User: Fold this.
Amino acid sequence: MALMRWDPLRELDLFRRDWEDFVRQVFPVRWEEDSWLRPAVEVSETDDEVIVKAEVPGLDRKDLRLTVTDGTLVIRGQTQEEKEDKRRNFYRREIRYGSIYREVPLPAEVMPDKAKARLRKGILEVRIPKAPEARAKEIEVEVE
Assistant:
């Protein structure tokens, strides 16, 4: 069994998700059009770039807007509900539709004009090259 570093923010996020699931089960209400969803993200970096992955199931490329402002990647999108069939009686409606919004702080200075984004199987992957001053630099150690 591998050891994992404890991440209190991850624990809070898991608690928030569990709490929201509980509230939805106890108080089943339809997701309102003006409410928004917060997609789960994964942020990592290499020597040359910052990589952000986000869960955006049901969204097409045309439904997403990405911006980088003040060291933060902002992900916006809109999921559309299929035209409702008035003849159907729903016994359970858990699929949520509406806007998604997430601000992701980036761990390094980046060059947003060179960013590349790819959407595959409901996962958005954004790769943003680091600015030259933010890249890891090797320091030579002198021996005396």
In short: The chain has a mean pLDDT of 81. Residues 138 and 144 are 19 Å apart (CA to CA).
